[in-house]
Each structure stands twice: as C-alpha cells, then as structure tokens.
C-alpha cells in the first residue's frame, strides 16, 4: 500500500483522519497524498443556493484549497513526516495540486491509489460527509480506510474480519492482505443472522492459515439485535484495532430503508474500518 489518498475538507475529525492515514502509511513506507475536497454542485444547491454560488466563486475555491493544503501539510510536518522528494525513505507526503476536487471526481481520481482514507460520517455539521465515503467506495474500485472520530493508539495489530460469506467481503479480504500480513493476531468473526450463502468462516481461517497468518475463529449470535452492533461489540471484546468488513453486501437502497450492518458500523465504529464493495 504505497499510495494513500486523503481528501482534505474542513471538519472536526480531520486530525483523526490524518493520524489514521499516517499509521497506515508507516507500515508500508507509503506516500500520503492530500487533495482539497468540496461538495458536488448538486449537493450544494440542494442544501443552500446562496452557499452554492459563493463556494464556486474562483477566489473562494482558491482559499478553500489553500486552507486544506495548509491543514494537511501542518499536520504532517508536526508529526515529522517529510515531503516526498528523491532520496526520501519511509513514509512521506505530497499534495495533489491547486484544484479543488468534488466527491464525484474523487471517486475517479482514487482509482490511482492503493487505498483512500476518509472519516467516519456523521449527522453533525462538523462531521465528514457520507457522500464523500460513498463516492470513494462505489466509484474508485479501491478499498477505503474509514477513520474513527478519535485516533487510536495502535493500528492493525489485532484485525477482526467480519466474515458474512459475501462476494463483497471476499473482495475486501483480498484487498486487505498487505495489512493482514503485518498483523500480530487475526480473528475471523462469524455473526449468525448476517450471513449470505458461501464458504464458512472456518474455511476462510484455513485458507488464511495457508498464507502463514496467525488466524483464530470467533462466533456470535446476533439474535434480535442489529448485526452491525454485535460485530462492533465483538471486535471491541477481542481487542481489535482494525475491522475488515465488506461494504453494502445488501443493496444501498435496502439498507437506507431497512437498516443493515454497514449502516450501523458507519454510525458507531470506534476503531478504523477497512472496507470495499
């Protein structure tokens, strides 16, 4: 995972997002690239027509990009991450350029990267926007690392894989192999009541063990409780500092109407979540 992309937007969780990106980058001596982000035109118009007019003024856009660049570079410099340059070894950072990206453009640009780091969305005005996460998840074809609202002291030492047997989760496990190979402990978690047809968790454990990985197995019954909440509780009980989870293994529309494990995890996760669709 040598190429990490972080969209930079003014919100209260930016420090946690950048700290999570640094923790991931330190494992792989990655180049972390920041890009200034703003909403798509349609989202702005739907929210407030006057704001839409002002944010797409050229001067305003330049100011947004400059504030984003400074916030990104100040964080990296504060924590001793050097700018990318010939001869620089280890984790480093770079800036995408002078233009402000939008959510839809981020999905396309993200196809160049190994992973995209975003914040866990929330309903508050100071929280990251869900549109950013969904554009990156559905349009980039790349995995996401979703940072919790507060940065964790460790990252990727104990990884819980939430295995529901689905195609999306199988793809996510494949993307996560570089992280799995760095982990001290891996637990494949099966939660009854949230399973698709497919290979068992025990079968996945055996497959991962053939890679020489330190894999255990755990099982839980969700009963009448939301599966996503049970997954998070089990991950906490197992001491996980990273959760690997397929995103929207039910349709997004169905989850919006009826709920689902992905929605619960996006609402409540307090550890980083590695997710792909």
Molecular structure report:
This protein has about 280 residues and is α/β, with parallel strands linked by helices. The protein folds into two domains: about 140 residues, Rossmann fold (3-Layer(aba) Sandwich), CATH 3.40.50.620; about 120 residues, HUPs (Rossmann fold), CATH 3.40.50. It contains twelve helices and eleven strands. Strands 1, 2, 3, 4, 5, 6, 7, 8, 9, 10 and 11 form an eleven-stranded mixed sheet that branches. Helix 2 runs antiparallel to helix 3, helix 5 packs parallel to helix 6 and helix 10 crosses helix 12. About 5% of the residues have low confidence.
Order of helices and strands: EHEHHHEEHEHEEHHEHEHEHHE
The assembly state of the depicted protein chains is single chain
Class by alpha and beta content: alpha/beta
- Based on DSSP secondary structure assignment, what is the total number of beta strands? 11
**For the residues shown, what is the average pLDDT?**
90
Please count the helical segments. 12
CATH class of the largest domain: Alpha Beta
CATH topology of the largest domain: Rossmann fold
CATH superfamily of the largest domain: HUPs
Shape: globular
* Biggest sheet overview: 11 strands, mixed
């Amino acid at each position: 995972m040598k190429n990490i992309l972080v969209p930079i937007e003014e919100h209260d969780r930016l420090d946690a997002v950048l700290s999570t990106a640094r923790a991931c980058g330190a494992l792989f001596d990655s180049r972390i690239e920041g890009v200034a982000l703003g909403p798509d035109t349609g989202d702005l118009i739907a929210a407030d027509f006057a704001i839409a007019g002002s944010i797409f003024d050229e001067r305003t856009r330049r100011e947004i990009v400059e504030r984003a660049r400074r916030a990104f570079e100040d964080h990296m410099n504060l924590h001793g991450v050097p700018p990318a340059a010939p001869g620089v070894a280890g984790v480093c950072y770079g800036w995408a350029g002078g233009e402000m990206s939008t959510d839809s453009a981020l999905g396309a640009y993200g196809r160049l990267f190994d992973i995209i780091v975003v914040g866990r969305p929330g309903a508050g005005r100071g929280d990251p926007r869900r549109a950013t996460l969904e554009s990156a998840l559905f349009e980039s074809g790349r995995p996401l690392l979703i940072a919790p609202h507060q940065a964790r002291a460790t990252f990727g030492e104990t990884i819980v894989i939430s295995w529901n047997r689905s195609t999306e989760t199988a793809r996510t496990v494949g993307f996560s192999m570089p992280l799995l190979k760095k982990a001290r402990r891996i637990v494949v978690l099966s939660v009854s009541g949230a399973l698709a047809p497919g290979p068992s968790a025990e079968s996945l454990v055996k497959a991962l063990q053939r890679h020489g990985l330190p894999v255990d197995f755990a099982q839980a019954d969700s009963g009448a409780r939301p599966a996503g909440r049970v997954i998070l509780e089990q991950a906490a009980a197992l001491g996980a500092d990273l959760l690997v989870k397929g995103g929207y293994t039910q349709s997004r529309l169905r989850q919006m109407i009826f709920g689902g494990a992905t929605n619960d995890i996006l609402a409540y996760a307090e550890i980083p979540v590695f997710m792909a669709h």
